[in-house]
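Need tokens for this chain, all 197 residues.
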Amino acid sequence: MPRVFLSFRKADSRWMRNLLYRSLADRFGSGEIFKSGGSIPAGADFAEILRRQAAECELMLVLIGPAWLDIRDDDGTRRIDRAHDWVRVEIRTALKAGNRVVPVLLGDAAMLPEASELPSEIAGLAGLQFLRVSETHLTDELERLCADMTALLPDLGSRSASPAAAPAAEPTVTMTARASDGGSVYQAARDQTINPA
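Here are the structure tokens for all 197 residues:
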């Protein structure tokens, strides 16, 4: 079961979100990171899986870009204000389960919402220490995020099956033969035979 759950809005900061996911998956193994688009098998009951993963994860990263709070439905209602909004459901589930929840602000313009801007059941998100992944020096910022996660979950990634070690290459042996009369130099691998002319 993945230990880290990424909660996000699909319409918010997609390029940074994808870079962040790839960085975490490369560092800790994709099996440790739950991302709804890639972690739910086709045909599975996504609602049941989302709720279970949010309840059982050890760490939820709430990825907040500049538009996260204000994305609205066609009728103008903020999505976060809908009781069935999946981001709201995920955060509520993780907080209720007592899991560690960390807001991650994506980019320089993203701000942590005030408690008064959030539904009461997830207002506690506003009081949690956040991490920021700035667009400036993005590679360094992603490396710092991975280090922060290692501090929070020191053995993160240790369960992942490490890639099978490649068999050791057989050493190459080079043989050189010189013709006694000053002729050409010949080279061959171990399984070849040199027949001087």
